[in-house]
Records
---
Amino acid sequence: MELNSNHFFLTSIQDIKELIAPLKKYFGITTFVYKKNFNDGAEIRLSNNAEYSYSFYKNKFHTESLFEAKPSLYTKARVLWDDVYSNTSRAAEHSRNHDVYHGITFVEPFVDGCEIFAFGVPVGRVDLMHRYLSHIDLLEKFILYFRESAQPLFRKAEKSKIQIPGKFEAAPSDLLSNENSFFDRSSFLREVCVHSYKIFSAREIQCAELLLQGFTARMISHQLNLSPRTIESYVQNIKQKTNSVSKPDLIRTLSSYFK
């Protein structure tokens, strides 16, 4: 598939460049890609690197990318490219040809699909990978900032979303079976924390951690692929277990439990 040069995915690069300016300034991250993959096969893509995106579609790299399978199969994950792509793979070669390497991809499920946030640095700058890994929480805050700031771009992009016939069938599924990429974080925390985590269920821990990141109940429902009513029920359970009477009180209490 080849995108027309006037396609919104390619013409929106200046807007994306402005939004990611802090990433370049503080982390040396020079390429950013946002993808929203829907369970019906549609997708949108926004990036500051038009040539990288154009080449992706023209050369059908959806058959090489590990993030093109049916979105509902993914769980929340943080994936280092160096861990999952061989140096000799076409995907790695494609990135190097566009001076994009040593990156990390955040997989964020939502009700009808998943969001992909990819951050890449120039070839040879492995030192920058260590920099962002030391401040992974700041990349997560950038994601919240991007979601909020890019709303007008999202609306325009969804009018131009595309579908690639047979994408799910052609996509590699290696990542979905990679135990190093997907693991049960909540259960691990329950086993190693001697008191605070043990009073909460795995779902309540997920909700509590997202509340501390500033997520609303509706945002959490998208993140965990659950209904808002279900999330509200979990939040109410957390309030009862912590004897919290208001949201500010709950956040203060959770900060003592989880930080």
---
Amino acid sequence: MERAELDLKTIEVISAIDAEKFKLAAEETAARYKQLLSEVPLLEASQKADLRNTELSLQTAKIELQKSINNAEKMVLKSPIDGIVVMQAMRRGSEFAQVAKGDQVFPGQMFMQVVDPSSMVVNANVNQVDAELLRIGMKATVRIDAYPDLELPGHVYSIGAVPVPGRRPNFMRTIPIRLKLDKEDPRVLPDLSASAEVLLESQQQATLAPVAAIFDSEGGGKPFVYLRSPEGWRRREVELGVRSNVMAAVRSGLNSGDVVAVEMPPQPQPGEGASKPPS
């Protein structure tokens, strides 16, 4: 009973305290509400700034994406012709090897070629002494080293204007030329080694004689040969036509089947007749 009476006596005091607490809470809530209302413009400005920053980041990402697309497109090589891709050799360490994935190439470095099998050419070199004899369009016969029995017709397509030095400075200079094949063959592949003979002149139904058998007269006279006869070796002047490094066409002075000396025969002593041909 005493406790109940004590609680009844403190009701007014407790109610006043609770009322004061509620009043303080209400004031605190009102102050917080006013503070939040004052922060709304700042929050809106911050959100707008964040949104603008995000938009700028998006635009930057789009620019970088387009730049990457452009760079990727520039890395794509489109051949202007149909053909076979031939990778070139490059120095890798102390040896030459074919260009492969991961190799570093430099500006201007040739690392591949596209070859049209229907229009093959032979890159060759000719001695600078013989270069003056060549003309564009001259017929040629091309032989592929890998197929000894294969001979293909061609013609001189281009002649270089600048000589190419040899492996050593004192070597004979050569002139680069390009021969175009006039006939296709499936066995002809890029980078095969080949040799060629260029037809400088031609003469039909000509009598041929070895160049070693043609002797020049002193004082600019006509060339001559030593013809074998029953009496011995007879000197006979000849008129020459086209010639190569080994054979010459004789227009007059020799007949088919004549035997000529490829070396100077012994000359008869004064009072002796012509030298006898060897038995």
---
Amino acid sequence: MQARSLTALILRLLHGRVGSSLLMRLLATSTQVISDPVPPHERRLLAFAGGPGCSPSDFSPPADADEDDLSLRSYMQAWCHLSAIFAPAPGSHPRYYCEKGVDNLNMIAAAGIPISIIDVVRDPRDIFVSARAFARRAGRPVFGIDPALPDAVNLTLFLADIAVRADTIGRTVDGAVPLLIRYEAMVHDMPGVVRQLNAAFGLTLAPELVAEPGAHMTSRNVSDSVGRWKRELEPELAELMTHMLDQQLRRFKYALD
């Protein structure tokens, strides 16, 4: 790999609706970060670079994978091409290419691509309420929620999805130790989040330039998006979720009531 190759800065998400777009907008204020500039910032290169017929969850390279592996070669070729496109121009020094929602981190690392990870979490009860509101407004299945199905069905599938995703949060990949960012911190302590990112990745960020989320929001304002489950989630569903997610809530330091 060329010495000037970019580092893949990957946002690993507990689920959708965790503030990944907000974090992408914050990271994009640094001249050191290259990313999709179009909201909601979901055009991806790395998630699907393994070739046709593969989904991200399929990417688990064997222990003896080598440089002749077709998927690894496709990753390397795509990455070299991307790094060449974004080669530092006079006065700019991009170091990272940032992408969110990428699951195939082992494949990326196996291809020899430098990698850094940000784990993004949010209270799962708020995630469910936000995803349900978004799906109802859209009138179609989105974020794992089908507005045509009863809440009990959607919640069962949601809980199973959270359990699987939570298991990956905190895992190191090829020696890369993830930085944990909580949605609630981005809402209530953005300066603290900026300090975390600067310390971990050496970024110069300008949070004052972060645009408002606009139509992507499902709450009245950003502050109301924290703890909204207490107001909007039916008591029986709230009790069930708190019970079923006890381990995850404690792990990520969310109150049980």
